[in-house]
Design a protein that fits this description.
306 residues, 2 domains, disulfide bond, Epithelial_Barrier/Signaling, membrane, C8-3_MUC4, alpha+beta, Mucin-4-like C8-3 domain-containing protein, five-stranded antiparallel beta sheet, single chain
Length: 306
């Protein structure tokens, strides 16, 4: 999210545990199955991945300000609402691909695959981190809005209290990868990629969980409940799988489905692909992760050239 004199952007996501493995074990990881987004005073857009028994026609449910919309007709492929435009590719009739574009220039590309959402967020340069002292006030925009992050206990004059910046799980948009994992109280979590088990554990407890527990009004409307078990995304006792290669995390039953050599060959050294294969036991999930990561890197390279 970000809050500045020009932007009031909020993106919230829901995560839940995927189905059990083929050897009937619970998967100790989560996938994104729903999101809600708003920018300034725009309409609130909600997108949910449908469950398996409801995916025979549409792959997603899309709501704008509480009203369900569809993109299965040629004249419905581009729809404009208050401050936001939603587009679906012309040949996509099952709503598995969506593009959400806000008037501020912020945009999301959503792709559904096997009941989960893959989301790419694109932000214009105006979302870049900026010092509030150097902000030029305009007549049409209010000034001295509160910054998004909370004021730290030890200092009132660090970057979180004097800069307008994006915060949350997506990191800080300023071209510096070292402060992407910034907690709500402005503590920077340093790590390497791929992470070791202690690093992954530290990121989860010192960064990820803190963003989940923020007291922020929810953009999700309670009357729409595509997730049937609330404990699957709100269980405080949930402990994720930090290192799938660790011996204690490796089930003997999984050896009947795949081998570690197969994982290494299939994933081509991509840690996210290896994690999804080892945790879920499904080859197709790993291939989807590998494909999406390759596509993202290609789009990133094209954007940098332009």
């Amino acid at each position: 999210m970000m809050k500045s004199p020009r932007h009031d952007f909020m993106l919230q996501a829901r995560f839940e545990q995927p189905p059990e493995t083929l050897w009937e074990e619970r998967v100790r990881s989560t996938v994104m199955t729903g999101l809600a987004v708003r920018d300034n005073q725009s309409s609130v857009v909600q997108v949910f991945a449908r469950k398996d028994h409801r995916r025979w026609r549409y792959r997603t449910d899309v709501y704008v300000d509480g009203e369900r919309i569809f993109f299965d007709m040629p004249w419905k492929k581009i729809q404009t609402f208050s401050g936001v435009t939603i587009r679906s590719p012309p040949r996509n009739m099952n709503q598995s691909e969506l593009e959400i574009m806000f008037a501020s220039g912020a945009g999301l590309r959503i792709e559904e695959s096997r009941g989960l959402l893959n989301v790419v967020v694109a932000l214009p340069h105006t979302f870049n981190e900026s010092n509030w002292r150097s902000w030029e006030e305009t007549k049409s925009e209010p000034f001295f809005w509160e910054t998004t992050t909370q004021t730290p206990i030890f200092s009132r004059f660090d970057k979180c209290s004097t800069y307008y910046r994006t915060v949350g799980l997506l990191g800080t948009y300023n071209g510096d990868p070292y402060d992407d994992l910034t907690t709500p109280d402005c503590m920077e979590i340093r790590t390497n990629y791929p992470q070791s088990e202690p690093d992954a554990r530290n990121i989860y407890y010192e960064f990820g969980r803190l963003d989940r527990n923020l007291h922020i009004p929810s953009l999700f409307q309670p009357e729409y409940k595509p997730i049937y078990d609330p404990l699957s995304f709100a269980d405080d006792r949930y402990i994720p799988l930090f290192d799938p290669w660790h011996h204690s995390d490796y089930s003997s039953w999984s050896g009947l489905i795949f081998s570690r050599e197969e994982v290494k060959v299939l994933c081509q050294g991509v840690p996210a692909c290896e994690y999804d294969f080892m945790s879920s036991g499904r080859r197709e999930d790993a291939l989807d992760t590998l494909e999406y990561e390759r596509k993202f890197e290609l789009k990133k390279q094209k954007g940098e050239i332009r």
